[in-house]
Structure formats: structure tokens, C-alpha cells
Amino acid sequence: MIINSGSLKNSKITIPKGISGLRPTLAMIRESVFNILSPFTEGCIFHDIFCGSGIIGMQALSCGAQRAVFVDKNPVLIKNIHRHIYRFKLQDRAELLTVDALRYLNSINMMHLGAFSLAYLDPPYGFDRWKDIFQELDREGMPMDMVVIESSRMLKDYIDNLNFFDIYKYKEYSEKRLYYLIKRGYE
Q1: Which CATH number is 52's domain given?
Q2: Predicted pLDDT at 114
Q3: Coil, strand, or helix at residue 111?
Q4: Is the pTM of this model over 0.85?
């Protein structure tokens, strides 16, 4: 995989073989995502949740994010991201956490105030804990200003019932759906 924008454009990312369920976001989708996010990425705190290969978070850093937090429960993937972070000399701008995504979302509160906080969630195929994810995201004190969710499932029923977020944009790419949610009243 290749980072396709920003200061690290054309830098290659490798992933370990044999990781089941790992399906990195296609280059075409990443390019579209970062075109849409361009007004928000510069200087933001970027949370790459269910980070897998880490390509999304590294591309965010490449596009000017102040800091990226990489969250995945698979230590092999986090170790691989760590290797790339050091190779690209991004260690002062990256935090790597081997933790379950729901536990991470539950643990964060106002700790990232001061910078625009953006989360990108791309759970593994077959993920079935959407209700829990939306309960964690849609609560008082959640510091995320924008959330992007990549999924093969329709999530409209959950999104229609959010109290703190509105749909900023929605895109479909064949089987993939991207929901761009922005904190209510932010615009």
C-alpha cells in the first residue's frame, strides 16, 4: 500500500501476512476521504480506531495532523505500525495503543481539548457491536469533533438517533459506506 497524499506521498506501507480479517482501505477511497477531510486534518488530533495496517492514520499525519493515535487490539499490527512510524520519523507525533476499540472509546473524555479531534473507525468485516460503538461516541464529554465510519453495513438507524452528531457527508463505494459525522453545532 502507498500513502497517496501529503508529505509522505508515495511512501510504501507493508502489512504482515496471514492476518485474518485485515482489509486495508482502498487507495481510491483514501484519496476521497482525505479530499473531504482536508479542511479538518491540518493540526487535528486524529484517532485511527480499528487501525489495522495504520495507513489511514499515517496518511492523516502526512496531510498535516498534529498527532495520530493508532488503536487496535492486535499486537502484531501495532508492532508493524510502530516500525513504519519510526521509519518515517513520526514517533513524536504518534501514539500506539494495543487495546480494544470500545475500551478506548470508553476511556477517553476531554483529554484532547485544544485541537480539533477527528476519529476514523473501520471495524473488521462482520463487526456486530455497532450499538455499543454509537453509545460510546454519542455521549456527553466525548471529545471527538468529527467521526468518519467506514462500513459495509447500513447504519442509518443508529445515525438517525444521535444526540451530539449530525451527518456532514455520506458516500458509497460499491459495498463500502462512509459516514462523516460532525459534532452538532460545530459548523
Answers
A1: 3.40.50.150
A2: 60
A3: helix
A4: yes
